[in-house]
Design brief:
The structure holds 2 protein chains of 2 kinds. By secondary structure, chain A is of the alpha+beta class. Chain A is built from 9 helices and 4 strands. Chain A has a 4-stranded mixed sheet with strand order 2-1-3-4, sandwiched between helices. The longest helix of chain B has 17 residues. The chains are: A alpha+beta, B mainly alpha.
């Protein structure tokens, strides 16, 4: 039995390719497991694509992108294309319902869940809440509701988020991203050695994991 | 990119850079548009 391959993933919640990339990575890891019985240990790290985003924005994603200088006549087609690719991996993005927001508190909640041994569950819940369910993921009460739905102690989540308990952990992740030179997400660091950027095909992830497995076997 | 990592995979795979999350064919132009916008500010 070989030890799991560590995969560190930098990702944001408000990042359509991060959710799609998550599904593709999971498919690649499943291929790797099916072919070699290989295991991976995944840890998510915080990355804020747009830290100056307001917590509340009164309008649609289309409206928001217009305020940020994107050409209005291109936005609908752009979002449709992204939604189509999301559908191809089983995700149902709902840009009409999506509530654009700042994600720093959501990142803190992921760290909170990590401290309770449930980071992956929280990451998945937040991405689905944001892209598929039109839930707000930028306010303490909304995030506490989501956490309570997963069985977390709502009052303790409110306490943690209200006191910015894990803000330093978020910043530490961001510092590490800078050290690695990460500018875009999703970004996968595999075995602390290989960098894989973006929502790659599942076969690419499987191939990199296999390469790492073979290298480890060669030196064992 | 840091020399700590060896980069593997398709360099054109979709990713978000700042608020730019388009498909690759559109990303370069969108980044350029944003930079022009920022310079104007």
């Amino acid at each position: 039995m070989t030890e799991p391959i560590k995969v560190d993933v930098w990702s944001d919640i408000a990042c359509p390719w991060c959710f799609i990339g998550k599904r593709k990575f999971e498919a690649g890891a499943a291929q790797f497991a099916a072919e070699f019985g290989g295991e991976v240990e995944v840890e998510y790290h915080s990355f804020e694509l747009s830290p100056d985003t307001p917590v509340d924005f009164d309008g649609s994603e289309h409206d928001y992108l217009v305020t940020r200088g994107f050409p209005a006549d291109k936005i609908t087609g752009m979002l449709d294309r992204v939604s189509g690719i999301a559908e191809s991996v089983g995700l149902h993005y709902d840009y009409d319902a999506l509530q654009h927001t700042n994600t720093v508190l959501a990142h803190q909640l992921i760290h909170y869940a990590k401290a309770h041994g449930r980071q992956l569950e929280m990451k998945e819940r937040l991405l689905a809440a944001y892209f598929e369910q039109g839930r707000h993921v930028g306010r303490v009460d909304d995030l506490a509701d989501l956490a309570a739905e997963l069985g977390f102690d709502r009052d303790d989540v409110v306490r943690s988020l209200s006191s910015n308990e894990y803000l330093d952990a978020v910043r530490a992740d961001q510092e590490l991203a800078i050290e690695y030179g990460i500018q875009g997400v999703p970004f996968f660091v595999i075995d602390g050695k290989y960098g894989v950027s973006g929502a790659q095909d599942a076969s690419t992830f499987a191939s990199v994991l296999t390469q790492v497995r073979d290298e480890k076997a060669a030196v064992a | 990119m840091s020399d700590k990592l060896e980069i593997l995979g398709d360099p054109d795979a979709e990713s978000c850079d700042g608020e730019v999350c388009e498909l690759p064919a559109h990303r370069e132009q969108a980044v350029m548009n944003r930079r022009i916008d920022e310079d104007r500010i």
